Amino acid sequence: MLARPGRRAYRRHQHTLIRQAESDGTPMREVDVAVIGAGPTGLFAAYYAGFRGLSVAVVDALPEPGGQITAMYPEKLILDVAGFPAVKGRDLVANLVAQAAPYHPEYLLGCRAEKLSHVDGRPVLGLAGGEQLRCGAVVVTGGLGSFSPRPLPVAESFVGGGIVYFVPEPAALAGRDVLIVGGGDSAFDWAATLQPLARSVTLVHRRERFRAHAGTVSRVLASPVRVIVNAEVTKLYGDDAVTAAEITVRGGAAETLPVDAVVAALGFTADLGPLAEWGLRLDRRHIVVDSAMATNLPRVFAAGDITEYPGKVRLIATGFGEAATAVNNAAVVIDPTAHLFPGHSSDAG
Ligand SMILES: Cc1cc2nc3c(=O)[nH]c(=O)nc-3n(C[C@H](O)[C@H](O)[C@H](O)COP(=O)(O)OP(=O)(O)OC[C@H]3O[C@@H](n4cnc5c(N)ncnc54)[C@H](O)[C@@H]3O)c2cc1C
Questions:
Q1: Which SS3 state, helix, strand or coil, does residue 209 take?
Q2: Residue ranges of the FAD/NAD(P)-binding domain (predicted)?
């Protein structure tokens, strides 16, 4: 059942979001709007869909919401989000989740959207694991596409046993002996954040020079963090969980350190992944949209970093505006009697 959005929509909260549809055994559920990507644009799209009285599911391949912010710079201050003179990435994501929460979006995290088809003119999304979502409309907010952390080869057998690629909750590493691998912004941000919490922090980088912000590098070098350059992690020890690491300096001897948490901050690789096969009109790695943020496919909109049009600027601020445009246009496609303009949120209180 699709909600009837319009000026009345913001007076009520839509609590029942997705329901099991009749099926032939394939799990099939129904939702008004499926948002693909829980980055800042997707999270704001979830708010807007809820505000319009539409049920919404937010699908993301990563296990945490926040997209690039959570994966790459949760501890950095962002200075160009309207209304926030300075906001830490982590706090912006938490606020976006809180802003959408009254409308109870369903988060399907750690779950990649694999397929898109149309049945009776409506999009059907195929999710990793086989579940299908029948949607009133889809809003693709896939950012850089599917991004996966660059692996630390010696750590592969320890993933889930002390190896992480980003740190959703720094407090979880309090009192631990932490080894950070990498020489970029993420590695140094994690080092600066974890140093006051952890028992020890060692940062290992395989080159002499760092690619991180100079101010953060100076702060870390002046702190109790031990920084080892021209070095690699050559072995990890432990049964189920890591207990020690062997570090080998180029041309030098190997040293074994007690370690019970490893943060592999080696960067991410990104590609459009399955989205490239859906028949969307693309311009290199981006989805071409019109001024309504509509794609070439029926009932499929896009917003945020993943979109392309003349004059496109890839920033959080533009993604927010595009999310509002995409969802409000989707609302009218779902219910042609609905108004495009959603009404003012300031009237809702
Ligand atoms: C180090 C750094 C610093 C930055 N600083 C700033 C700044 O100060 N100000 C600013 O405005 N911008 C900044 N940016 C850019 C900003 O982060 C992006 O513009 C913003 O994250 C785009 O948001 P998004 O939601 O469109 O996409 P993303 O944040 O990229 O999120 C997209 C999400 O979609 C998911 N996804 C993709 N494909 C699928 C699929 N098939 N199935 C399921 N999930 C999928 C991905 O896993 C990802 O979580 C910075 C970027 C970086 C890397």
A1: coil
A2: 32-318
Nearest residue (by CA) to ligand 1, atom 30, is 143
DSSP calls for 216-280: HHHHHHTSS-EEE-SEEEEEEEESSSEEEEEEEETTS-EEEEE-SEEEE---EEEE-GGGGGS--
Alpha carbon 345 to its chain centroid, in Å, reads: 26
- Total-model pTM: 0.86
CA distance 117 to 285: 20
CATH homologous superfamily for the domain 4-147+268-347 = FAD/NAD(P)-binding domain (3.50.50.60)
Please tell me the CATH code under which domain 151-264 is placed: 3.50.50.60
Q: Domain segments of the chain: what residues? A: 4-147+268-347, 151-264
141 lines ligand 1 (CB under 6 A): yes
Q: Is the CB of 339 under 6 A from ligand 1?
A: no
What is the torsional sign of CA 258, 259, 265, 271?
Answer: positive
**pLDDT tens per residue across span 118-177:** 999 999 999 998 999 999 999 999 999 988 888 898 887 777 778 888 887 889 999 999
Chain mean pLDDT for the chain: 90
Within this chain, domains 4-147+268-347 and 151-264 share the same CATH topology: yes
- Residues 263-283: tens digit of each pLDDT: 999 988 888 999 999 999 999
